[in-house]
Amino acid sequence: MSAIQGIEGVISQLQATAMSAKMQDVQPQSTVSFAGQLHAALDRISDVQTASRVQAEKFTLGEPGIALNDVMTDMQKASVSMQMGIQVRNKLVSAYQEVMSMQV
């Protein structure tokens, strides 16, 4: 009998939690599109590459306050972000090809 009472206690707690969840105001979440996220990621990659190029140009022109290690770090960040973008693109193309090869 005590096992049944324990289960009933858990069920009543779950029901109470469900009721309190229903009574809470739910704020509508803004929808974020996949295409929008992909475009934002590409923009960030472009920004990193542009910043790296500008930093390298400033160093080449001999502007004060631009250290070689900062330039190299920025260039490496740009390279890594570009490689990540390429890998994401490859995964997307692979997933698209897999979906297109499915028989309906």
Automatic annotation (TrEMBL):
UniProt keyword Zinc present: no
InterPro entries associated with the record: FliE
One of the GO BP terms on file: bacterial-type flagellum-dependent cell motility
GO cellular component, one term: bacterial-type flagellum basal body
Top-level taxon of origin: Bacteria
Any GO molecular function: cytoskeletal motor activity
Range of residues in the leader sequence: none
Location within or outside the cell: Bacterial flagellum basal body
Keyword vocabulary terms for this entry: Bacterial flagellum, Cell projection, Cilium, Flagellum
PANTHER family, alphabetized: FLAGELLAR HOOK-BASAL BODY COMPLEX PROTEIN FLIE, PTHR34653
UniProt record similarity statement: Belongs to the FliE family.
Protein's UniProt name: Flagellar hook-basal body complex protein FliE
Taxonomic source organism: Citrobacter youngae
